[in-house]
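Posting for a labmate who doesn't have an account.
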Amino acid sequence: MSGVAPAPEKDDDLPLPDLPPLPKDPRWKVEHLGFLTAVSFALVTCAASVGFLVSGPTAALAAAGGVLIVTVSHTLTTLVVAWADTVRPALVMPLGMLTYVVKYSLLGIILAVGVSSDWSGKKALGLGVVAGVLVWTAVQAWWVTRKTLGK
C-alpha cells in the first residue's frame, strides 16, 4: 500500500437510466382517503349501534374500536407508502413491509391480549376489526376499479 488513491472509474460519467416521470400532482396517491374515512366513520356508527343493541355499551365501544383500529392502520399504511413513493420509489417496498410488520404485530398483540382476557367486549372488538377490513378493502377495490376504468 503506497498511500496513493486509486484513479476514479470511467463509469462515473455514464448517464442515469431513463426513469418513468413522476405524476405532476402526487395527491392522487391519497385522494381516496377522504371517501374511505367517511365510509369508515359511517361503519363506526353502525358497528357501535349494532353492538349496543346486541350487548350494550361495552360491545358498542368495542365494535367501534375495532373499526377504528382498521381505519387508522390502513390510513397509516397509505400515507407511508405514498410518502415513500413521492420521496424515492425504491423506498416503497422496504417501508411498506416495515409498516405492515409493525402494524400486524401490534394488532396481533392487541388481539392476543383481548382473547386471553375476560373482557366482555372482545367478541365485538374482533367483529369490528373484521367488518372494518371487509368494508375498507371493498371500498378501496371499488375506488381503484372506478378510477382505472374511468380512464
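Reply:
Got it, the C-alpha cells are right above this. The two ends are 62 Å apart (CA to CA).
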